[in-house]
Amino acid sequence: MAALPPFTPPAITHDPRIAPREICFRHPAYPSSAPDLLVLTAADSDGGLDFDVALVSCCIVADVRWDGGYLAQKDVAGGSSNQSFRRIDRPPGGTLRGREFFFCIEGCEPSSCAFPPFLPS
């Protein structure tokens, strides 16, 4: 039996000279020097990442039910030295545009909540 001819490789849909943009997801209680909880590559051509993919990925890594966590960003308004976080709801179109988000667990104070101890380091 003869082998089939190879498939034609797919066309490049992005500029290969431009490095893909990374979006970092961090633990809200860890210092800024700590490693990221998760880093995903922005898959959209305009540098965005699907909100649901990001949220469910963080839930998997943190061993939390898919509806047990939420994404947040640091709230730096007012110049306070205390860290507070602003919950990020699913944006219109479902695409995240920022570069850094924090994964928080429902019902836990973000700055003190601990994830299970078996998270990758």
SS field, number of helical segments? 1
Order of helices and strands: EEEHEEEE
Helix content: under 10%
Biggest sheet features: 5 strands, mixed
Compute the average pLDDT: 82
Q: Kindly report the CATH topology of the domain at 22-105.
A: Ubiquitin-like (UB roll)
Secondary structural class: mainly beta
Strand order of the largest sheet: 2-1-7-4-5
Characteristics of this structure?
121 residues; mainly beta; Ubiquitin-like (UB roll); 5-stranded mixed sheet; two-stranded antiparallel sheet; 1 helix; 10% helix; elongated
Characterize the structure shown.
By secondary structure, this protein is mainly β. The protein has a domain at 22-105: Ubiquitin-like (UB roll). The protein is 10% helix and 24% strand. It has one helix and seven strands, in the order E-E-E-H-E-E-E-E. It has a five-stranded mixed beta sheet with strand order 2-1-7-4-5, covered by helices on one side. It has a two-stranded antiparallel ribbon with strand order 3-6. It starts with 21 loop residues before the first strand and ends in a 16-residue tail after the last strand.
Helix and strand arrangement:
Blueprint lengths: L21 E5 L11 E4 L7 E2 H12 L6 E6 L10 E4 L6 E2 L3 E6 L16
Parallel strand pairs: 1-7
Antiparallel strand pairs: 1-2, 3-6, 4-5, 4-7
Summarize the structure.
Helices cover about 10% and strands about 25% of the residues. It is mainly beta.
